[in-house]
């Protein structure tokens, strides 16, 4: 479904991505692992059209994406849930969800609304609540749900567990697994490597802008380097 080939991205003179290549097949849940500054968020921003690569290719179902505008990438079936949640704090929960479906006719949003309310029942109860008054966990639920309102084929999730209590993290990651089982392909960037690998099919490890390891989730979980760097030895 997604092919990334020899991607080079710069911030002015800083070479952030150095020939990154990887793939995500339809129906997969794939994790990008790496320390802070490894290039994970830069990768997602580039795939979403928020950053332009200096060189390299990004293909979605065989069609080039590297020079496509972000709103058009959404229309092609890609949604990006950014790091830090970034809900619209002065809008209600329902208004945030409707904004997520901006690329579709408002009258057609009913099935997606029902899907996200089944995934996250708290949001159904808080439809009229101002998003900025939600807890951190509820805001993360809303951010993921807002992405799903675009009815994506491919969902990018950037650090969905950041800053959340362990119990909420487990719930969020189980919801991500459910989203994938419902037919949405997922590319996940996640600081909690153990839990991310537990729900993923495959993964890649980024280090200083380059892919240094790849394999099945089980292979990465058993790799000495991954265990020492991300799984606590």
What does this structure look like?
- This protein is of the alpha/beta class.
- The chain folds into two domains: 1-77 and 152-233, 3-Layer(aba) Sandwich (Rossmann fold); 81-150, no CATH class.
- The chain has ten helices and ten strands.
- The protein has helices spanning 40-47, 70-75, 93-100, 110-119, 121-125, 136-148, 166-181, 193-199, 217-221, 224-230; strands at 2-11, 14-24, 29-33, 55-60, 63-64, 78-81, 154-158, 185-189, 202-207, 210-216.
- The chain has a six-stranded mixed β-sheet, with helices on both faces. The protein has a four-stranded antiparallel β-sheet with strand order 2-1-4-5, covered by helices on one side.
- Helix 3 (93-100) packs parallel to helix 6 (136-148).
- The longest helix is centred in the last third of the chain and has 16 residues, at 166-181.
- The two termini are 34 Å apart.
- The mean pLDDT is 93.
């Amino acid at each position: 479904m997604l092919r990334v080939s020899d991607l080079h991205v710069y911030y002015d003179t800083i070479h952030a991505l150095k020939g990154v290549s990887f793939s995500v097949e339809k129906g997969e849940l794939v994790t990008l692992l790496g320390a802070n500054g490894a290039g994970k968020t830069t990768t997602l921003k580039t795939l979403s059209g928020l950053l332009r690569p200096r060189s390299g290719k990004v293909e979605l179902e065989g069609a080039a994406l590297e020079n496509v505008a972000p709103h058009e990438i959404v229309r092609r079936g890609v949604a990006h849930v950014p790091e830090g949640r970034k809900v619209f704090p002065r809008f209600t929960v329902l208004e945030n969800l409707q904004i997520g479906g901006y690329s579709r006719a408002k009258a057609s949003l009913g099935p997606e609304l029902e899907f996200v309310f089944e995934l996250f029942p708290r949001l159904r109860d808080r439809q009229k609540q101002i998003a900025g008054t939600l807890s951190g966990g509820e805001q993360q639920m809303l951010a993921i749900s807002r992405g799903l309102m675009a009815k994506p084929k491919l969902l990018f999730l950037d650090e969905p567990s950041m800053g959340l209590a362990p119990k909420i993290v487990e719930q969020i990651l189980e919801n991500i697994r459910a989203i994938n089982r419902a037919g949405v392909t997922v590319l996940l960037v996640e600081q909690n490597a153990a839990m991310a690998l537990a729900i993923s099919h495959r993964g890649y490890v980024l280090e200083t802008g380059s892919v240094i390891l790849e394999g099945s989730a089980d292979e990465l979980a058993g790799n000495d380097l991954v265990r020492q760097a991300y799984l606590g030895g």
